[in-house]
Structure to design on (336 residues):
DNA sequence: CGCGTTTGACCCGCGC
DNA sequence: GCGCGGGTCAAACGCG
């Protein structure tokens, strides 16, 4: 590790320890903190509050303890924090905060054991918006009809238009396909301390858009998985409050293995089968950016990241032992 | 030539 | 109804 990196490491440490104003974007903050009755000014505190107040609600427990998506969803909704992960990558330094949002999506609320998948209020400390999943469902069903009608209408108009020979706009010569309603997928957000915007996660992404973010000098980039029939998307934006923080939001589940995984790194970190595929892969890829990046280049070298962990936290896996080890350590750091 | 990025325009939902 | 902002499309462009 270079001297520069070492300095960054210390900086990062301070960041975690001292900053109580973790930066979130307006649109992301609701994912992380949805406590009713809290003002906007408390959005940021909300997330931190959760980290501190829910020491036993970490992703590892859900990986271990839940055999159904409902519980997993609950846990995700509660917000999870990942360990600090340091290591040189792409010439930059990467540290990660893991935050999971499934409040928008409905896919995770698959038949929960207790039937409380999206409706059971959690602890007062949790940030769960239990109604959002339901609402999303209703919304979806409502919108579906609407959209279908719209599509039919558009088709009619298109026919009309072609008959009349009118092309009002050059740009939109082809009407967009809207047969399929835009469905909200489960989202999964990471906060990453990184110098690079687009982080390697083992998948291939194609950028399909970029938008300026309101109240932020940094644009938001939209990526889509390049694999055919895989509709996973991700948004990448830089926090306007702390430009060193990159917020990556995944949406959807990969219908395939990651290229990096295929190349033989799965035996090192086999995620639990209970975790949705994309979450498992993305999560692990994000926990092991160095690994995924290096394995992608055919030079897997776990020692690249192992030394960054204290001896006791060095993974004893197979399996996801690393997560198990790291998450509590991170949380312990948060304990007074 | 294929693949990925850029970028302006369009779509759509939502709040007022 | 209108405006705003987030999300997406697709043509143009760049690069290897």
């Amino acid at each position: 590790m270079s001297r520069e990196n070492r300095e960054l490491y210390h900086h990062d440490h301070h960041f975690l320890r001292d900053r109580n104003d973790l930066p979130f974007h307006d649109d992301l903050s609701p994912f992380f903190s949805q406590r009713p009755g809290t003002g906007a000014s408390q959005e940021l505190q909300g997330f931190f509050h959760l980290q501190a107040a829910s020491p036993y609600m970490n992703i590892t427990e859900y990986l271990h303890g839940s055999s159904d998506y409902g519980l997993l969803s609950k846990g995700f909704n509660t917000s999870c924090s990942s360990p600090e992960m340091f290591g040189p990558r792409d010439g930059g330094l990467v540290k990660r905060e893991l935050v999971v949002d499934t409040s928008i999506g409905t896919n995770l609320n698959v038949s929960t054991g207790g039937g409380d998948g999206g409706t059971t209020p959690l602890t007062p400390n949790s940030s769960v918006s239990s109604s959002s999943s339901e609402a999303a469902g209703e919304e979806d069903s409502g919108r579906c009809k609407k959209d279908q009608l719209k599509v039919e209408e558009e088709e009619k108009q298109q026919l009309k238009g072609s008959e009349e020979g009118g092309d009002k706009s050059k740009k939109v010569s082809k009407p967009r396909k809207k047969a399929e309603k835009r469905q909200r997928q489960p989202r999964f957000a990471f906060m990453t301390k990184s110098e690079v915007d687009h982080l390697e996660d083992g998948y291939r992404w194609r950028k399909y858009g970029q938008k300026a973010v309101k109240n932020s000098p940094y644009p938001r980039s939209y990526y889509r998985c390049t694999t055919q029939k895989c509709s996973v998307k991700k948004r990448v934006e830089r926090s306007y409050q702390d430009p060193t923080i990159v917020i990556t939001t995944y949406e959807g589940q990969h219908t395939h293995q990651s290229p990096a995984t295929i190349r033989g790194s799965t035996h090192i970190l086999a995620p639990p089968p209970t975790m949705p595929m994309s979450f498992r892969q993305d999560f692990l890829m994000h926990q092991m950016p160095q690994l995924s990046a290096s394995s992608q280049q055919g030079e897997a070298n776990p020692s690249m990241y192992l030394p960054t962990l204290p001896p006791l936290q060095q993974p004893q896996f197979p399996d996801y032992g690393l997560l198990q080890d790291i998450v509590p350590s991170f949380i312990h750091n948060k304990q007074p």
About this structure: The longest helix of chain A spans residues 130-164. DSSP finds ten helices and eight strands in chain A.
